[in-house]
Sequence to fold (574 residues):
Amino acid sequence: MHVVATAGHVDHGKSSLVLALTGTDPDRFAEEKRRGLTIDLGFAHTTLASGAGISFIDVPGHVRFLRNMLAGVGDVDACLFVVAATERWKPQSEEHLRILELLDISHGVVALTKVDLVDDETRELAHLDIADHTAGTFLDDAEIIDVATPTGRGLEELRAALDRLVTMTPPAVDRGRPRLWIDRVFAAKGSGTVVTGTLAGGELATDDTIDVMPLGRSVRIRALQTLGRTVERIGPGHRVAANLIGVDHNELERGHVLVRGAQWRPTSMFDASLSVLAALDHDVSRRGAYVIHVGSGEVPVRMRVLGQESLAPGATGLVRFHLPVALPLLPGDRFIVRESGRSETVGGGEVLDVAPMRAASRARPDRSVDRVIDERGFVDVDELEAITGVRRPADVGQWVVAPAVLAAHREALRTAVVAAGPLGLDLAPLDSRARAVAATLDDVVIENGRVRPVGQLDPFADHPFVARLLAGGLAPPDADGVDRAELRELARRGAVIELGGLWFHPSAVDEAAQRMAVIIAAKPDGVTAGEARDAFGVTRKHAIPLLTELDARGITRRRGDLRIAGPRLPPLPA
Fold:
């Protein structure tokens, strides 16, 4: 399926031509039929001889309804450009062509209508006029088909040309990130809220939960239709009608957009390139009441030209836009800028950065993903995809890292490892990024939460203090002369335990528990601290910390001044 927009001056026969090609009148409103003037977007579809489907978005040609025209051309694949032989090229013909170019539409067919109302010489002059105005544009080599809609002349030739057009037009790309700009909202009897739009970026399915931006509402898709058919799922490049649950139609409007919220980072500030129309008679600067047309919406913006004060007619430069609402945009999105005070189209361009990091005075945006990474240093892979549309494999942990930043982090870690000495660098105080970088170093080893150079022996593997504690049993020696950092690391590894300010080998607690099991078996009504001390064969200095630890582990329980069996008292030795 391909989506094609009509374009051209008012009263050149766009709607009549769509009706003749599809059998559907795109003018939906009574006022449009009464006045013979397209006011809002119209929609129709047909199947060509090749079997290819084509959906038309019929746009208004009158300058007063230009905003409605702009709402319809945001996600189209190609255009059917209509020029009447009776009037030839007109002002709105020129403006529509410039708008289509600014939106980067690159395929089209020209229909020269009303040829039955002119003689051959006038018709040939119309062909020359079209060729002159489209020279150097994407319509430079486009087919020009003579059509007389009332008589049917040229309709089959036009259908064949459209068939060739869609063959040349690339299909919509499925990036797994659906986005549907809403161009029509209504309430269907018995169904509730229905929205329509051109689906891009990914597929939607019945029962999907989707977010409405900038409304910030999650809704469920009850049903989907395309070309009048109900479908369970639909891919990009199709006209779609979605029946929504969870929102009233009065809450929605043209310019709202359906997306999966987790995949996007809606932005109220973005950097872009702006190409100013050469026909403009003044420079473009931050002074002006600007609106941008993006997707199907029209949004007032504040604009700042980056790196200079203004842009001359015909120039292309960098700008920063500030929006009153956050929209789900991506680099590569196209837009049109109009100046509402002068009621004129200023130009158009391409979104470059939806999450600018640098101040406007220093910003020099482009489409480079590497620039985004360099400006941030570390970027979460999901975040990078959300703001650029590009997924990169992680360099470290969950992050894509700028090469210079990664090299600096690695060097800093190596320096810190050397400075840490034989103990090694403790990973615990480091942040998650530094820990992830440490794991990538090939000249260090990470053991027991510490980083040491490759080949350096573990100073804690056979630490002499552990041996002294083991030999001391229930009356171990003091820790005089042992570094506190070493004691903390030994304790973290479970090689030693601290009880009441004294250091014990872990086996000392097991030995104390066995001795308590023996004396409690002899005195089940309770054992005093003095009796326990004597059984341990130590002084009160060591006995009390051991007894406190046995209580804490549930090996013994206190009953007044006595200790009785706890639930974890070990059995008597065999």
